[in-house]
Recover the amino acids of this structure.
């Protein structure tokens, strides 16, 4: 089992609807456009999503300079459209009970949608955590995909 006491939370407010953000997380064409930090890309042909409880997903990030590819995947644990999405995150062949868990919660607010991103089961804090920094930069890509500036 993973240590769920370790992890971090990132909160962003987007000038977008919950539906637009949900689509960005669950539609393979959208995922390919943003699910990577700068300097990497996610080729559309590497993205496979079955966004239902028990469904699986995979995608690959490719380092634009070196061509090195990292394949990531997991299993959907919670799928509450436009509100909450939870999934394991790691090597696609890992046991879900031994994988970190991402939870994305969407809440309407006056200026758009507040998205709370929580990753449990990894260490890392702002500036010193590989996972924190990678996800922070990836959420910048999501903001740009949704038509806003990198936050």
């Amino acid at each position: 089992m993973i240590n769920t006491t370790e992890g971090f939370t990132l909160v962003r407010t987007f000038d977008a609807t919950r539906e637009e953000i949900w689509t960005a997380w669950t539609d393979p064409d959208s995922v390919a456009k943003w699910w990577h930090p700068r300097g990497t890309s996610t080729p559309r042909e590497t993205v496979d999503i079955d966004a239902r409880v028990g469904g699986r997903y995979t995608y690959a990030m490719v380092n634009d300079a070196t061509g090195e590819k990292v394949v990531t995947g997991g299993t959907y644990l919670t799928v509450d459209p436009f509100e909450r999405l939870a999934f394991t995150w790691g090597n696609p062949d890992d046991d879900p009970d031994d994988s970190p868990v991402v939870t994305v919660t969407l809440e309407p607010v006056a200026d758009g949608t507040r998205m709370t991103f929580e990753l449990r089961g990894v260490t890392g804090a702002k500036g010193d955590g590989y996972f924190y920094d990678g996800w922070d930069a990836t959420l910048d890509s999501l903001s740009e995909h949704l038509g806003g500036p990198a936050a």
